[in-house]
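Re: that chain you flagged

S.,

Sorry for the slow reply, it's been a week of failed gels. I finally had a moment to sit down with the sequence you sent. For the record, here it is as I used it:
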Amino acid sequence: MKRITYLIIGVLVVCMIFSCSEKKTTETNQTAKPTFNLASGIYTASDSVTISCATPDATIYFTIDGSNPTPNSFLYESPILISRTTLIKARAYKDNLDPSEIAQVRLMMNVTTISLTEVPGGTFSMGRTKGAGDPDELPVHQVTLSAYKIAPTETKYRDWRCLMGNSAYAVNDTVPVFKVSWYEALVYCNLRSLAENLTPCYTIGGKTNPDDWGSIPTFFNAVWDAVVCNWNANGYRLPTEAEWEYAARGATNDPDYLYAGSDSLFQVGWFFDNCEVFHCSGCLQSNGLGLKDMSGNLWEWCWDRYDSLYYNVSPVSNPKGPNTGIWRILRGGGYKSGEKCCRVAERDFSAPYYRHDCVGLRVVRKN
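Prediction finished late last night. Pasting the structure tokens below so you have them in one place:
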């Protein structure tokens, strides 16, 4: 029995030595992960970012455009002066060693809160209640929604830039941001929630901080498509399709307008017949809730997946769309759209990774 015991102990010691040796080998065969002098967070003034590496004589490369660093990226030689929101990614290299893990830090500059409009809870008729349209707008069905808050305009570039940096398109700070993918919209919502000390709504891979999600996909991504929304969180999110239509209707079917606030699109929306480019948010007449540009200007992302037959099975209370499907809902029409596409009942969809030049977003929060 003793011999067996000694043998077992000997085997354990050998295993421990091998394990330690293996761990040491793994550690010494990889360049140390870079570190930053500043942590991710909100800053009100420009600052300098220094990057260091514990591996002697390692070479550090970095990016500020969201891409992963390679030896073809910027070479770090001196502190980086930051005067606007920037995501810095860094990776260290040394001959005869594996490249380090990628380190990153997001410095957010001059973040300001945005004002939201109260939308009272209530019941409305959802779908094509008048006029001609598409089959997926039927049947008209009753929907009851809890109260929530919604942005009175599409997300402006200045609000996007202070969190995301120059990662999307706009003419200037006063116009809505465009060419935004659905995946990017998730990142924006959670970053804004964190910046305002609110509980983020979206979780991807078990994490709520977008800096832990990895690079924003440029094609369908199963992990990002499995995003979970915490509907009880008080942070920012995209509206559900039902919330979008209810808000566009002014929280009522009386009057039962074709567009968001009028039966004349010329009064409330920029579209194919009255403009060649999108316009600053809020230049035209608002709807009954004081919301602007819910018809025309830019298409707006919603949370829901698309299913042409969903209205046949939609629950009455706070519907959130089907559980499966690869496309995500777009609503409202845009400046390139005809009148039909700008109706409050119109439904469209796109791939979540795609960045259209006439697509933006509008955020909501729990009341």
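What I noticed first: Helices lie at 2-28, 157-164, 182-195, 222-225, 241-248, 265-268.

Talk soon,
D.
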